[in-house]
Amino acid sequence: MTTIAFIGLGNMGGPMAGNLVKAGHTVRGADLSVASCDAAAKAGVAVSANAVEAVAGAEVVVTMLPAGKHVLGVWREIVPAAPTGALFIDSSTIDVASARAAHALAKEAGALSLDAPVSGGVGGAQGATLTFMVGGGVDAFTKGKPLLEAMGKKIVHCGDAGNGQAAKICNNMILGISMIGVCEAFALGEKLGLSHQALFDVASTSSGQCWSINTYCPVPGPVPTSPANNDYKPGFAADLMLKDLKLAQEAALASGSATPLGAEAAQLYALFAGAGNGGADFSGIIKFLRGA
Ligand code: NAD
Predict the structure, then answer these.
(1) What are the catalytic residues (predicted)?
(2) From the candidates 22, 42, 69, 168, which is the catalytic residue?
């Protein structure tokens, strides 16, 4: 059993911390939001007054926060406050540069650290079925893996510091681009008199197949569990897709990579979210593309 501090008990962090409790660990949590703290307390998390108090005596510290500036702000406070030898894991989705800066803070203090962003959304966080994409040294990965297994079902070591975040934004750039491509094809098929089911039956078993059509089809009918059948309620909100596409563009600029389709996808999701659809599922962009 491990004593774990969990900072950031929101939509994702709350249920993840609850799964660590279920696995038998002692979890001490902190969050700026009283509502998040109350919900986590109901799941068995011992709520502390603040992050610094939560990390006292912790063997492992997990952060699940909105963006890089929050992670670096919190890590600057908690890395010096945690016991020597603590392992730091950040599971937020943040920019690669901030992730590497967070690792550097831990390294300067002689601590092990991992960036371990997730995919699988709130459902995956609740059901402990998340996929973790992990960056950091082998020692840190070996120590952290059993805890990640209490919160997820697939744990992939992607390489050194920051590589978990790199894998996350590359994957989600593929997803954003592929969803737009699938939506365009369905909108074109409609104009050509092709039924949704016919296009699905062909494309989902032919060379057009991909997760965006086979599992998350953006029109109602062919895949009953996709958000299209539920008036595009998320699911995965367009605002979060836009966040990840922007992170991919920042990384492309910083590394000198050409990602013209990633740039176009970021622009389209910015227009879609800016038109008041940020809270809708990202597959709802089909409605926007029909009108374009
Ligand atoms: P959220 O807004 O529900 O939770 C973030 C929590 O962090 C909030 O409760 C907030 O009060 C807290 N917080 C902010 N600053 C803090 C500080 N200084 N100290 C303590 N607590 C602080 O967000 P979420 O949906 O849980 O997402 C968390 C991270 O996971 C984000 O980076 C997001 O991109 C990523 N993510 C989310 C999803 C999803 O489907 N929601 C999926 C994959 C990854």
Answers:
(1) 168
(2) 168
- ipTM of the predicted structure? 0.99
CA distances from 88 to 105, 114, 116, 135, 276 (A): 10, 6, 10, 12, 37
Residue 168 known to be catalytic: yes
Distance 115 CA to ligand 1 centre (A): 15
d(CA 169, CA 207): 24
* Distance between start and end Cα atoms, the chain: 55
pLDDT in tens, 113-132: 999 999 988 889 999 999 99
Supply φ then ψ for residue 130, to 5 degrees: -65, 155
Instruction: Determine if ligand 1 sits within 6 Å of the CB of residue 35.
Output: no
Q: Whose CA is nearest to atom 14 of ligand 1?
A: 65
Q: What is the CATH number of domain 166-291?
A: 1.10.1040.10
Residue 168 neighbours by CB under 8 Å, 6+ apart? 93, 117, 118, 119, 133, 244
The pLDDT value recorded for residue 121 is 87
Ligand 1, atom 34: nearest CA belongs to which residue? Answer: 93
Distance 193 CA to ligand 1 centre (A): 43
Q: Record the pTM.
A: 0.94
Q: Which amino acid is at 132?
A: F
- SS3 state of residue 64: coil
Q: Omega of the bond prior to 235 within 30 degrees of 0, cis?
A: yes
218-271, pLDDT tens digit by residue? Answer: 999 999 999 999 999 988 999 999 999 999 999 999 999 999 999 999 999 999
Query: What ranges do the domains of the chain cover?
Result: 3-160, 166-291
Report the nearest atom of ligand 1 relative to the CA of 12: 26
